[in-house]
Protein 1
Amino acid sequence: EGVLGPFLDRVRKEARSWTGADRSGGEVTEAPGSYTVRLDRARPLEAVTATTLPGGEAAAGAIVQAHVPDEGWRTLGPLSASG
């Protein structure tokens, strides 16, 4: 008895950590046809996750890019509306 609440609190904390929701997302700039997220510093990335609305038309034809210092923008791949 009394274990469900603490368990769910831990689940929420771990989920936020796993998805990155517990960290600042950076500065977002919105322009026609694009969103740019600038991080506070350059860093190596192992993965990039972009969440979309299920079935959202905005993902159709969209690509994900990363800016590499001294090299410019590099295409990482297409944005998938289904994950």
Protein 2
Amino acid sequence: MADLQRAGVRWIFCDHLHRNAEAQDGQTTVITTGAAGKPLGSGKSGIRLIWINGRNVSHRYAEFGNLPHDARQISAAAK
């Protein structure tokens, strides 16, 4: 993690934990997206939508069955 932080990495997006999780270490945020197939716990299957605008990053998890028809409409409301 120290090497990534020295390199200026601010966001790390991961998968295959079978649940959603978020952690912060200094200026670096690690986001894990749950399984698209069989999530563990109370989570539901879905995808993570990510918007990158210059140095700004926002994201939102969208469950299958509740996916937006146009992701641009919800980008302003993303985390």
Protein 3
Amino acid sequence: MSPLGLFPKSLRWRLVALECMVVGVILLAFTGALYELAARNLMHDVQSSLVDRAQQVNGAIRQYVVFGALRPKQVIEIPPPESFASSDTVVQISTLDGQVIVTTSTPNGNNIPLDQDTLQQVSLGNSTFERIKVGDEELEVYSSPILLRDRVIGVLQVARSLQLIEQTLARLRLFAIVGFTLAMTASILATFYVANRSLFPLKELIRTAERVGRSGDLSQRVKTSPNLDEVGKLASTFNTMLERLELSDKQLRETLDAERRFVADASHELRTPLTTILGNAGLLLKVPNMSPEDRQESLEQIYEEADRMRRLVSDLLTLARADAGFRLKQEPVKVQPVVESAVREMEHRATDRQLRIDKISDVEVVGDKDALKQLVLILLDNAIKYTRNQDSIQVEVEKDDSQAVIRVADTGIGISQEHLPHIFERFYRADTSRSSDGTGLGLSIAKWIVEQHCGSISVASEIGKGSIFEVKLPAKK
């Protein structure tokens, strides 16, 4: 099993557990070091006091021992035990063969044990420390040689009970345990509080994501605080993502609605000429003896509707290429000959209108020559459709700063303000009574061509006074 599996699944509790582990290890190490240092210092104090006491006793023995070395049966003059007895220290003098000569009372009345290892070390002139247990009492014993004229003549042992030190260390352990518990409790509470505050935006993010997942409502947002930390920035980024998703969803819905309308309108537009063609063709088949005038009229209607279908299919193919991401050619194009060619081509349709070029400048753009001509033809065709006899259509080409401006103005029937925002939509017609003259796709294609050239197209119109279409394209540098 992975060690991470031991951690709780909640990120908050993982942070708390990890922090407690780190703090716990640090506290244990720090408390252990303090405890060890205190124990060493206490033991050092005990040992120092034993050495000092041994030196005092040794000095007193040297004052009284004047003749020879100490021997088990030799009568020597040494200080009485009362002279170096104390309440916390036990003093014992022994011969080199372990016979006790003088001793003060131990807490339980026993002598201080003297083993062979200690005797051997002392005989060599060395001093030793050892911890021994006498009865129920633990003692720290300092054994040192008694010298007379640089010769070891006995063993001096000074002992002290460790009961007081054990009590002190026990209190220190209790204090450490209580302090450790309080510190860990405070650490857990503080970490839990900080984690709660820090992860609040994350919890809000999760709740918001769940609400969005259940309801599909992309208008939901995560509440964020003004002071953003990393989690707050994540929540803010999530909100930005939701805004973009909401916008994309809205655009997708609008696109799907537009596609449904497009399919329905295309079906309707194709059905109308097909009905006319089939009706006239059926009439020609059923009435073989039709008069030449009626036959001619039927054939003309078939031709007109077939031509209308051709134009509609051509426009549909153009828009299909646009939807598929088709890119137009990019090459230097002089605008003047393109506009003049389009005007000449449309003159035969505007015999009863005043179609003229008022102003034309020699300006060059980067783009597709054929597409630019199609753009001008669409604008001229639109102007011809919505002007009356003797109305005027003016075409202008000029350079404005770093832009080429193509302007087509007419004095026709105009477009009401309610229709202006929609005239570049597919199959949209401002005047439905004139719907039979066009496909309703021309201005949509014009807008696509302009966008392919990184330009803009706008319209200004007033009912009864006419319309002005203005195209701005980046001029070639």
